[in-house]
Amino acid sequence: MNPVRATRHGLTLAHRNLLRFKHTPDQLLDIILMPITFVLMFVFLFGTAVSGNWHTYLQFVIPGIAVQALMFATLGGALALNTDLRNGIYDRFRSMPIARSAPLIGHILGDAIKYLLAVMLVFGFGAILGYRTSANAPRLLTAAALLLAFAFAVCWIGTLIGIVARAAETVQALSLVLIFPLTFGSNVFVPTDKLPGWLQAWVKVNPVTQLSDAVRALLAQQPATAAATHALLWTVGIIAVFAPLAVTAYRRRT
Amino acid sequence: MSYGIEIEGLVKRYGETVALDGVDLMVPAATIWGLLGPNGAGKTTIVRILATLLRADRGVARVGGFDVQRQPDRVRAMIGLTGQFAAVDEALTGYENLLIVARLLELPARQAKQRANELLERFGLADAARRSVKTYSGGMRRRLDVAASLVGTPKVLFLDEPTTGLDPRARADVWELVRGLVADGTTVLLTTQYLEEADQLCHGVTLIDHGRVVRQGTPAALKATVGGQTLQVRAENRARSGDVGVIVVEILGGVAAAESDDGMIAAPLPTGYSAGATLAAVATRLESAGIEVAEIGIRLASLDEAFLALTGSPATTEALR
User: Residue B307: what pLDDT?
Assistant: First the structure.
């Protein structure tokens, strides 16, 4: 199967993934409602307490919530993949003259677009509330690229979970076990130096922290090289570990 | 004669379990062939191997002349599969489901749309084309599923229990569709637990049980092999049904007997057994065993009993209905 045809099949299945997304309002809610709720809750409930006033906090928290939204979006993707694998639809794909990798490519491409949507929604909603960035175009693009690359990396984790889990409940449980420590055990909501000392050790190495820091700094025209490098290293590391695992699991399962 | 499907000595094991134990099967092109057997007999395993979803441990399987293991892409290009679980996307509309399949088969955009609409029309789904499949009835889903497997105009079509769970009307619709396909030259292999379905639809039937071919032939020939008569006995005391079964089996030379919910023991009369003499013999044995009889008689065998006699499978009514 040549790569051009495999890509074409993958794109068709990515299109299917997005069509499903369009028709499934609860999946949309995951991506729209969750970030909006978090933005409102944290900005108005804790904003003043953490940063003195909620305007300052808004500037701090929006990039972090964007990262969090991206993490939560993996859950929906993993669930959808899991459902696909358990009903007959992958059998149909596999009995067709298409590239074996096409369903996986389609899944990941389609999901990446959902993640992008989730991130854009957070920034859009933040902007309505008054979030502003002074970043120039290269910095904006760098931030977007970092977010997208990380989304792609996390997508492989979600994919692995979606493939190995035998039931939807398992997907949910595994994903939350993964998402909670990563998002809440980070400096998404509270600056690292205000967290208890024992927690700081984890928070500082947490990729979600690194990425949030990088995006914040990039968008606030502050030095971002160190955080961006760390975030990128994490991204590459996650892909290097989870992509082969997911592909192996996929080959075994299908 | 050219064959749509050729299978020789197919063996498949799952660990210790032998799913297929040397199956041979030749299906002439442009016929409907039924694979009949109880749950777990190996029907689905055969279909999955033919559809390139599963590798056999031994044996050869060819579809349209191509080896399923060595030329899977050639095979995939000429088959359609409707599995046991509806392989349609619930979240999508009927039209979108077919369109995706058409695009995967690399039909150009316009042709893909045309093909999707054409199939929806033909399968009586045109009115529901723009509705999400979630809102479809079981029969509509099945029809869409079959439609999806036909997008690429396959030469060989596999239908794994295409009518399970359908009401009689929807079942008749699917049968009509399948007949139309074969008239156009498609070879159809269908698995079913319903003898009636095989009888109505198939040119030939292969009965399998425990991974082996039990019998092969036309549905009529199959029915004829069991003589067509059934002995029925019901004990007054339900607790004695087991003893009745033992006596019946012994007198009939070891055929399989079935017990229904009301305690009726039924067994097919093998060829060469006279109805009157058998009845007398059973009555005498029951008398001497001290079993009070509520009901006894001989009637014409049903297809279900023919099936039971040939496969010797446990008489769970579930497997037969």
Answer: 67
State whether A95 and B92 contact (CB < 8 Å): no
- Cα-based torsion angle of the residue sequence A213, A216, A220, A221 in order, rounded to the nearest 10 degrees: 50
Domain-wise residue ranges, chain A: 3-253
- How many residue pairs bridge chain A and chain B with CB atoms within 8 Å of each other? 70
Judged by CB atoms closer than 8 Å, whether chains meet at A87 and B53 is answered as no
d(CA A164, CA B104): 26
For residue A103, give the H/E element and its range.
helix A102-129
Decide if B87 and A92 are in contact by the 8 Å CB cutoff: yes
Strand B204-209 to B32-36 pairing: parallel
Task: Give the ipTM.
Answer: 0.82
Structure-token pair, residue B230? 């059934």
Judge whether A79 is closer than 8 Å to chain B, CB to CB.
no
Range list of β-strands (E), chain B: 3-14, 17-28, 32-36, 58-63, 66-67, 79-82, 156-160, 187-192, 204-209, 212-217, 229-235, 258-259, 264-268, 293-300
Q: Which of A166, A240, A5, A242 is nearest to A100 (CA)?
A: A5
Arithmetic mean of pLDDT over chain B: 86
CATH topology of domain B3-217: Rossmann fold (3.40.50)
Q: Both tokens of residue A89?
A: 């639809």
The answer on pLDDT for B316 being more than 50 is no
* Four-CA torsion B26, B304, B209, B166, nearest 10 degrees: 80
User: What's the one-letter identity of residue B80?
Assistant: G
**Secondary structure of residue A230 in the 3-state scheme:** helix
- The values of phi and psi at residue A192, to 5°, are -50, -45
Q: Give pLDDT tens digits for B206-219.
A: 988 889 998 888 88
Q: At what angle do helices A207-219 and A137-164 cross, to 10 degrees?
A: 160
Q: Report the residue from B51, B84, B88 with minimal CB separation from A95.
A: B51
Does B224 score more than 70 pLDDT? no
Q: Which residues of B touch A8 (CB under 8 A)?
A: 106
Q: Residue A168 phi/psi, 5° resolution? A: -60, -35
Residue B85 CA, chain-centre distance (Å), reads: 15
Strand partners, B93: B132
Is residue B281 pLDDT above 80, yes or no? yes
In single-letter form, the type of residue at position B206 comes to: T
Q: Per residue in B147-166, pLDDT tens?
A: 999 999 999 999 998 887 77
CB contact under 8 A, A95 and B100: no
User: Looking at the domain covering B227-300, what would its CATH class be?
Assistant: alpha beta
- SS3 of B124-170: the string is CCHHHCCCEHHHCCHHHHHHHHHHHHHCCCCCEEEEECCCCCCCHHH
- Binary contact (A94, B52; C-beta < 8 A): yes
